[in-house]
Amino acid sequence: MSDEILISAKDLTVGYNIGKGFFDRTVLKAVNEVSVEIKRGSFFGLVGESGSGKTTLGRALLKAAPITGGHATFTDGEVTYDLATVSGDELKDYRKRAQLIFQDPYAALSPRMTVRDIVAEPLEVMGLTKTREETDARVREIAAKCRLNLEHLRRFPHAFSGGQRQRISIARALVSGPKFIVADESVAALDVSIQADVLNLLKQLQKDLGLTFLFISHDLSVVAHTCDHVAVMYLGRLVESAPTRQLFAAPRHPYTKALFSAIPSLDPDDRGRAQKLVGEIPSPLNQPSGCKFHTRCPNAIDKCRTTEPTLENPGDGHAVSCHRWRELLEAAITA
Amino acid sequence: MTTLIDVENLTLSFRTDEGLVTAVEDVSFSLKKGEVMGLVGESGSGKSVTAKALMQLNAGNAVYDPKSKITLHAEGREVDVLSLKKAAELKIVRGGAISMIFQEPMASFAPAITIGNQMVEQLLIHTDMTKAKAKEVSIEMLDRVGISDPSKRFDQYVFELSGGMRQRAMIAMALSTNPKLLIADEPTTALDVTIQAQVIDLMKDLVNEFHMGIIFITHDLGVIAQTADKVCVMYLGRIVEEGPVREVIRNPKHPYTRGLIAALPRFDDLDAPLTPVPGDIPSPLERPTGCVFHTRCREIIGDVCKRDLPENRWVDQSHRVACHLHAKTEAVR
Domain range holding B59? Predict the structure, then answer.
């Protein structure tokens, strides 16, 4: 991992106009003023419940969701694009450099195309190869990297198990030689025995090809094992962001703590100790005042209900957006 | 505790265009009243098919082997489940003694009928309640599973509820007929961890309150550790290990169980490499000979694994394993 920044987003907002009629300008902000910096060659984790905006943020960075506010820049050493305005030929070029791996390997692959055609399609659409021989060579090269058998290339997706299918989608995402990959819940649909295999493959590919990953997941234990840096989202806002070790050793935001304790422990005698979060994530149409999390927060005080906290960075790279984090940290130390 | 259901030598295949596909082979277990049994395994291991067999809910092309026997002990009598043929007879188990919760609540509720009407409908079919009484019971159940404002929710449609609420409504519906056995097929897989924790707590409370048996199907060993009393680990249609939850998780005997536990990302050691179970689960059309797991086993001994099916062996009173590694221990009782 280098110190150069690949993706830098500042106050990035994705809003959808959901007003009924001409004069109703109601906007749903799925991602609300989020700032992140993703270093080149890193494995950046993004966690949160469904509805927290993590997928939308990932898509916005791929230019697949409308950026309605703030800035985002992509710099890979060869080109620099402003993601809010990039269009035309530049956008086509950006598509080669940034790719997406989907969640469900059963839905992501066309049942009527052979594996070879699926993996070759991006090359043909983007016009990256001139002859069929060249395409085939490239497909074989990437298939080998993703541990697909060459004889598998002639088969159709239905012949494969979940793990193999996910390897096919990975091969398709990598065939255009991208620098930046968004992996959206890419192991959520897999069995644990296969999940570890796909995670190891992603790590290996990252090293071999010098990729940068934005790894979106709701599973903290998976994130802990694969990512270098983790950002936690809640209701469109970034609530905490830190290097993985720091975050897992000492989470600062009450939401992150609650996410930790909700993970079922493998120890049968450890039942019921967890600090459970009550209620569910509020509707983004009807957002709470003040801190978005105060409706479910065990530590909420009056200030949380009226004033929204800002993301503060105390200088150790561990940013948090909570009024009371220092106080709670001191209380935890003295206790 | 008295026995609730006995499953002996359950073998089940499906007739398909490619021939007879064995989904479940020689599965035996029994469940006591008030006991929670976890059924763990990868997709394709036959856990859902096993559970559905208890209510004969498998598709029409299912063929039950004549040796298979499922005995339900309910209300002082014994019911041979597989001998039931007509829909009217099957009501003893379906919606009577056994209820089921499915994985995806959005797909299990009818989208164009209110939740309340669906709950009332099943009560009218399975019990002799009047419509008014059924409505009262339904609202009471919705309240019991922690749905706020139950009389309002009663008239809502499933798309108006969030994922966690839908699963709660599903649980309320399954329990309103007061079943003796509840089959929960991956009830928390589609939910967020925070909501999953809530649903698990709710299910634990309900076991204590209603004292029914639960078969909890999941691929998540963490969920099993938190809920179950005993565990059956399935692989390619066979139970490879069975035992009390503490025993199986702390002292796993079968290489497959060990592999599943090693594949889980752990928090206590972030540097530990993730060890996948090598290879993929074979297609049910190409069942391996000998031990079904030998194609992926890290602890394979030799030809014996490829040739002979390992017997069930008891490593202690309640912990059994089917693996040649344990051939020296006492054979099946």
Answer: 1-33+47-88+220-265+274-333
What pLDDT is attached to residue B266?
79
From A219, A222, A271, residue closest to B226, measured CB to CB: A271
The count of domains in chain A is: 1
Residue B264 and residue B266: Cα distance in Å, rounded? Answer: 6
| CATH code for the domain in which residue B78 is found | 3.40.50.300
**pLDDT tens track for A83-114:** 999 999 999 999 999 999 988 888 899 999 99
- Chain A residues in contact with B286 by the CB 8 A cut-off are none
> How far apart are alpha carbons A288 and A305 in whole angstroms?
8
A136: closest CA of chain B, how far (Å): 26
CB contact under 8 A, B249 and A199: no
What percentage of residues in chain A have a pLDDT greater than 90?
Answer: 59
Q: Is B213 exposed, middle or buried (0-12, 13-18, 19+ CB in 10 A)?
A: buried
In this prediction, residue B30 carries a pLDDT of: 92
| Closest by Cβ to A193, choosing from B42, B165, B270 | B42
Structure tokens given for A139: 């497909």
Inter-chain residue contact A49 with B192, CB threshold 8 Å? yes
Of the candidates A270, A190, A98, B168, the residue with the CA atom closest to the CA atom of residue A200: A190
Span B35-85, pLDDT tens digits: 999 999 888 888 999 999 998 888 889 999 999 999 998 777 888 888 888
Task: Kindly indicate the confidence band of residue A1, based on its pLDDT and cuts at 50, 70 and 90.
Answer: low
Asked, for residue B324, whether it belongs to a domain, the answer is: yes
- Say how far apart CA A186 and CA A175 lie, in whole Å: 17
Q: What is the pLDDT of residue B333?
A: 45
Residue B111 lies in a domain: no
Cβ within 8 Å, pair A280-B165: yes
- Chain B nearest CA to A252, separation (Å): 17
Per the CB < 8 A criterion, the answer to whether A187 and A198 are in contact is yes
Are the Cβ atoms of B225 and A224 closer than 8 angstroms? no
CA dist B330 and B320 (Å) reads 10
Which chain B residues touch A274 with a CB distance below 8 Å? 197
* pTM (2 d.p.): 0.86
Number of domains in chain B: 1
Structural domain contains residue B57:
yes
CA dist B279 and B182 (Å) reads 34
Residue A333 in tokens: 């130390």
CATH of residue A113's domain is 3.40.50.300
Residue-wise pLDDT for B179-201, tens only, equals 999 999 988 887 888 888 888 88
Which domain range does residue A273 map to?
A: 5-334
Is residue B197 in a domain? no
pLDDT at A319 over 90: yes
> Do A49 and B197 make contact, defined as CB atoms within 8 angstroms?
no
State how far residue A120 is from chain B, nearest Cα, in angstroms: 25
Q: What percent of chain B has pLDDT over 70?
A: 98
Asked if the C-beta of B260 comes within 8 angstroms of chain A's C-beta atoms, the answer is: yes
Query: How many Cβ pairs within 8 Å bridge chains A and B?
Result: 118
At A273, the pLDDT band (50, 70, 90 cuts) reads low
